[in-house]
Q: What sequence folds into this?
């Protein structure tokens, strides 16, 4: 992963090389803190050791009992779905991957009706084993399998913590299961059993993903000038401090569209605390050049745009044409056009003084993805240290979870009372 901060210098809001030089001393101290947390396997920091601690053999052993399926359906939400989904969207496989995260009845029904259930592995993932959406969706999926005459115990893989509903279910039915590693918050679990089981089921090279993570790990150092991940974390923090409240993440590759979704959870849930944080916006190049870019370039100067691209990709030539106005396209390629759009957008933002950061990976493959995911997690942890927020907790999310559970009669949660206290100003 390579990071270029040049277009974040002298912009509005903006940073200078002096800003970064001053910040580098704090990066050194933050790195010491992070390294100590990693060495002690402290909650959260333990996620940054996953490239070394994750056990690919265990993942293979859990999935190898399933003959190569036609499809894999992940039933999970947030950190228990987005890592796997990011890899599945990015990497091609003849095993189709689907995610059932939301509890939208139409969507769940349509998905389950379409799936070849007899040839699908249902991969149910919940660290806590209590998330209502996941458990409800799993019960619905299990019934759909039974209705289709499929023995669900033959087709279900469970990934969960040491105890709880799903652990009990796996033990009771002797289901293949994987542990969620200790000390790893869901949104930091992409490089663990949570994110990698689907990749293994799809036939991807799980070891290469972890090797990419190790490349990212090896590049962490006490200076932002030596570590692309820390360069990104430090610059985004400094820009946020100066007013870049939104970080629009814009990959120039369809295959990285879900990466932006994964990034949004990582950034929002980890850094949105104590009145601080940076709102992640999801965009896609070149498509959103024709929509959102207007706002990013000419709207309120409270944004940063992160442009992400692979430097190598398979290409499609653009055929020659005898239309004079289109002659410039002929002989070029879709990839060439996409790269030109990337650089044009970067320049257009810079010309309007809008800070933007370029993040490049070599290509969309297992190793580069492992490095990208690791790099963004390390960037996020560094940002959290610099901002002094509690990066690995999510009390605001938990609040809503409790309120919903109370409403459904799943326990006595005072948070549910707030629902009856809702203010109204109706216009019918
Ligand atoms: O894995 P689970 O325990 O089911 O949790 C799934 C998700 O639930 C919550 O909303 C948390 O805030 C997320 O960080 C987590 O990824």
A:
């Amino acid at each position: 992963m390579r990071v270029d901060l040049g277009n974040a210098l002298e912009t509005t809001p903006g940073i200078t090389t002096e800003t970064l030089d001053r910040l580098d001393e704090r990066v050194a101290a933050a790195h010491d803190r992070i390294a100590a947390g990693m060495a002690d396997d402290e909650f959260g920091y333990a996620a940054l050791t996953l490239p070394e601690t994750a056990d690919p053999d265990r993942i293979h052993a859990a999935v190898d009992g399933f003959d190569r399926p036609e499809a894999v359906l992940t039933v999970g939400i947030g950190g228990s779905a987005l890592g796997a989904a990011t890899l599945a969207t990015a990497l091609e496989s003849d095993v189709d991957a689907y995610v059932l995260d939301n509890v939208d009845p139409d969507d769940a029904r349509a998905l389950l009706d379409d799936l070849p259930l007899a040839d699908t592995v249902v991969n149910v993932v919940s660290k806590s084993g209590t998330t209502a959406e996941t458990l409800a969706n799993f019960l619905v999926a299990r019934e759909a399998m039974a209705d289709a005459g499929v023995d669900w115990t033959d087709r279900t893989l469970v990934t969960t913590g040491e105890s709880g509903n799903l652990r009990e279910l796996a033990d009771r039915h002797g289901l293949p299961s994987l542990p969620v590693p200790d000390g790893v918050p869901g949104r930091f679990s992409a490089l663990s059993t949570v994110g990698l089981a689907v990749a293994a089921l799809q036939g991807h090279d799980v070891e290469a993903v972890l090797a990419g993570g190790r490349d990212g790990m090896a590049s962490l150092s006490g200076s932002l000038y030596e570590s692309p991940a820390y360069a990104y974390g430090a610059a985004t923090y400094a820009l946020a401090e100066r007013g870049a409240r939104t970080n629009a993440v814009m990959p120039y590759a369809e295959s990285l569209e879900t990466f932006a979704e994964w990034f949004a959870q990582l950034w929002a849930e980890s850094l949105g605390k104590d009145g601080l944080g940076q709102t992640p916006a999801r965009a896609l190049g070149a498509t959103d050049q024709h929509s959102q870019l207007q706002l990013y370039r000419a709207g309120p100067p409270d944004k940063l745009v992160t442009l992400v691209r692979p430097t190598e990709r398979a290409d499609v030539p653009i055929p020659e044409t005898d239309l004079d106005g289109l002659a410039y396209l002929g002989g070029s390629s879709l990839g060439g056009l996409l790269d030109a759009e990337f650089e044009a957008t970067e320049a257009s933002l810079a010309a309007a003084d809008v800070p933007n950061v370029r993040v490049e990976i070599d290509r969309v493959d297992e190793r580069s993805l492992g490095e990208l995911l690791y790099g963004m997690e390390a960037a996020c942890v560094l940002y959290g240290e610099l901002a002094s927020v509690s990066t690995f907790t999510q009390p605001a999310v938990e609040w809503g979870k409790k309120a919903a559970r109370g409403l459904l009669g799943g326990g006595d949660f005072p948070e549910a009372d707030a629902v009856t206290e809702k203010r109204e100003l109706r216009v019918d």
In short: The CA atoms of residues 159 and 178 lie 5 Å apart. Residues 77-80, 126-128, 131, 134, 186-187, 269, 394, 397 surround 6-O-phosphono-alpha-D-glucopyranose (CB under 6 Å). The chain has two domains: 2-36+210-387, 55-180. Residues 55-180 form a domain with the Rossmann fold fold (CATH 3.40.50.10490).
